[in-house]
What we know:
By secondary structure, the chain is mostly beta strands. It has 2 domains: 2-227, no CATH class; 249-287, no CATH class. 8% of the residues lie in helices and 29% in strands. The strands form 2 sheets. The protein has a 6-stranded antiparallel beta sheet, with no helix packed on it. Strands 2, 3, 5, 8 and 9 form a 5-stranded antiparallel beta sheet that branches.
Amino acid sequence: MKITSFLPATAxxxxxxxATADITGVYTTRYIxxxxxxxxxxxxxxxxxxxxxSDDDAxxxxxxxxxxxxxxxxxxxxQSATEPLFPTNTWWLPKxxxxxxxxxxxxxxxxxxTIGGVEQNVLRPExxxxxxDGQRLDDDFADPFDLFFVYPQPNSGGWWNNTPENLAxxxxxxxxxxxxGEPSGFGRGVFVGRxxxxxxxxxxxxxxxxxxxNQGPGTPQQAADFTIPPVVTPVECVxxxxxxxxxxxxxxxxxxxxxxxxxxxxPEADLNRDGTVNAADIGLLIGAWG
Length: 290
């Protein structure tokens, strides 16, 4: 990982930094999605969701730059039937206007990039109406005149939150999905993009990118270079709500604090993922105690 102390000119001026780099990497989840498109046709796509990881909840991701797709990632990505015949780069922005266009394939399968702004503590964050307000793209993110290569162009892609004071990119709990969309634990990070494709013969492994972040308005800005690693399904330690590798009184305390709620502030406490923290969850925790 290469740490730098600047943001590209498209986002902000250069500011020297001395803070510790808390953005720790980039990771992906991969699953198959089947959803209804316009006219109720059924679309089945392979979806790869991209997250930026962090060890500090104070971090706020500002943008992704110099996004260079690896060869296996240079495919024509899926968009719903609302896409025009000749796609432009703006179709990589969140584009769910609501109403009759608020359909399953837009919410769950369309490719799009954003800096946070989605409900991250659920599996398969949806592109609901209004997601991604304030997002911007580099002009060359996807070439609107290249009919054969409507993917982000190598060495030129980028997107950022144009209104960072809304803290849409603030680090928080993110639910992870395994290869078949099954729950596979929680992490800390920010959702930054969905890459969806007909078929399963593609990967975004080895794609490189630069991530810029700070810790809120007025704080120093940093940037670091990353390479997307292979998809790894995390091994979940059931009952380890704090993520410290042990199931103990710390985990029990958090579970009790959100008892009989939907646990939106601590989704890790809903151990069986049924939407409520209750006796079933405490049973799982006690079963894994120690």
